Amino acid sequence: MVFYFKARPEAGDYTIFMGLDKYENEELIKYGFPEDIWFHVDKMSSAHVYVRLHKGQTIDDISEGVLEDCVQLVKANSIQGKVSESSFHFT
User: Fold this and answer.
1) pLDDT for residue 80
2) Within its chain, how far is the Cα of 75 from the centroid?
């Protein structure tokens, strides 16, 4: 089951997707849209979290609120990521 979330209201109308396991992560990659931006904990097992941008937007248009919602979901769904906040590496 793929999980769907709405970003916090003040961050705007964005849908965030998250796979439950590696199989769902593969499905999200396979059926993703060009507007999807992917988040995960670098070099560690973690959920794959995607935010779907609006047509014409780029990664530079992601607000701090949407960014925080995505990274909090990634962190909360990574055993190792929960232990050490220094685990995060954004590219």
Assistant:
1) 67
2) 10
Give the whole-angstrom CA distance, residue 63 versus residue 10: 10
3-state secondary structure of 28: helix
Contact 74, 85 (CB under 8 A): no
Whether residue 39 contacts residue 49, with contact meaning beta carbons closer than 8 Å, is answered with yes
pLDDT digits (tens, 9 = 90+) for 25-54: 888 888 889 999 999 887 777 788 999 999
Over 60: is that where the pLDDT of 86 sits? Answer: no
- Integer Cα distance of 58 and 88 in angstroms: 22
Tell me how far CA of residue 90 lies from CA of 5, 40, 42, 70, in angstroms.
21, 9, 8, 12
Structure tokens at 57: 């937007």
